[in-house]
Amino acid sequence: MSEPDLTPLLDLLPELLAGRPLVVLTGAGISAESGLPTFRGPGGMWEGNRPEDLATPEAFESDPEKVWRFYAWRLEKLRGARPNEGHLALARMERILPRMTLVTQNVDGLHAAAGSRNLLELHGTLLVARCTKCARRSPAPEGPVPPLPVCICGGLLRPDVVWFGEPLAPETWEAAVRAAEECAVFFVVGTSSVVAPASSLALLAARGGAYVFEINPKETPIAPLAAGVFRASATKVLPAIAKALVRTIP
Ligand code: NAD
Ligand code: ZN
To answer: 113 CB under 6 A from ligand 1?
Structure first.
């Protein structure tokens, strides 16, 4: 397949973004090029289990060791991963655009590592663990599991992430909804847009009159909402957008 020509869309964005609020929603696809597998793509399986079956309170209840081994594997991958050109371009854009909010479904901490500050991590972070008894937070375990990590109170620790079937932190979610409703432009980057409620943010933005743009090499259910689609990888599109902005926004 030939490379899509992104120029017409890139020419349009600086004017659209100047002075107006931008929201960017990212998913696992933006970290794929940092070597972290997406959930649904190839390499997204772990020991024959679907992550969707391991990232649940029920799975933890019935076999905490299996769930922790899955997270220890993800943490190990994470320790070798660095922010890529896509993460870095979003951090640069935040410095040019004063009204930009970055909302991520990722738990890998790579946006913060890249320097993004106005960041809402909807699903928490892998790097932190939380006590199932006293709710105290501590750094995620560094070594292999078993042994199961425990809190200083003796309670079992769990990853401080939001599992399937659990509610998002209300203040984080409300901030994301407000940002989506108020923005003029909304980018959906590297997410299959099937995990609710994050997937509803683009819809809220579109209803509020925002221009929605999708950045994803594959088509997703968001496409019909979109004012424009960039069918290419995040590391190709985001640096090009950041460059177009630097050129045109003083
Ligand atoms: P997903 O696996 O469902 O979808 C990934 C999407 O990224 C796909 O649509 C794919 O076409 C696209 N993609 C792949 N490579 C890309 C690239 N180079 N550039 C742009 N897009 C690319 O992921 P999702 O929608 O984020 O699923 C949601 C759940 O997965 C979330 O709960 C999230 O917490 C979790 N998750 C997080 C991580 C992480 O933190 N890195 C990794 C795996 C899963
Ligand atoms: Zn405790």
So the answer is: no
